């Protein structure tokens, strides 16, 4: 059973992908992996897990701003960028997986880590979304 109405999937998926890619521009010097890990475990992402209308309608820039101001309070870990378009793809993949299998984002980032994303990205980003998400599911099931 999916997490919420299919109407919101595309928007949330694209917004999260763009958010993970553009955080490097909006929070200069941020440790992108640290940001993604914390964001996936945040109350804001939890609300998106349920397609909360207020947050589902926000742009990626608005979400970064809101998250930085009200959650991080302008304090974030400095570090490196995650390479290429991997952050965008990971954001979209996490979002689609969360919706399709109704797994809380905070749990998903623990069972399919950013290291896992790095490992599978070269092969999975060339697949269609459904095939990539199904393969993620197989990997998670194999690891259990």
Summarize this structure as a short list of keywords or feature phrases.
single chain, 144 residues, mainly alpha, 9 helices, globular
Strand and helix layout:
Blueprint: H1 9-26, H2 32-40, H3 43-48, H4 53-56, H5 60-72, H6 86-101, H7 105-111, H8 114-124, H9 129-143
Helix pairs in contact: 1-5, 1-6
Counting helices, strands and paired strands, the structural category is: mainly alpha
Largest sheet: none
Number of domains: 1
Overall geometry comes to: globular
Describe the protein in words.
By secondary structure, the chain is an all-alpha fold. The protein has one domain (6-143). Helices cover 69% and strands 0% of the residues. It is built from 9 helices and no strands. It is globular.
Question: Summary?
Answer:
The chain has helices at about 10-25, 30-40, 45-50, 55, 60-70, 85-100, 105-110, 115-125, 130-144.
């Amino acid at each position: 059973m999916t997490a919420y109405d299919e109407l919101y999937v595309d928007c949330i998926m694209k917004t999260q992908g763009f958010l993970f890619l553009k955080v490097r521009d909006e929070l200069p010097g941020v440790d992108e992996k640290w940001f993604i890990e914390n964001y996936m475990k945040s109350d804001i992402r939890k609300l998106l897990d349920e397609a909360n209308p207020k947050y589902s309608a926000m742009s990626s820039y608005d979400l970064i701003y809101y998250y930085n101001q009200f959650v991080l309070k302008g304090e974030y870990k400095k570090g490196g960028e995650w390479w290429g378009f991997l952050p965008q793809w990971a954001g979209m993949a996490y979002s689609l997986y969360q919706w399709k299998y109704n797994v809380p984002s905070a749990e998903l980032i623990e069972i399919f880590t950013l290291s896992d994303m790095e490992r599978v990205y070269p092969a999975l980003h060339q697949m269609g979304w459904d095939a990539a998400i199904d393969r993620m599911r197989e990997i998670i099931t194999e690891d259990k």
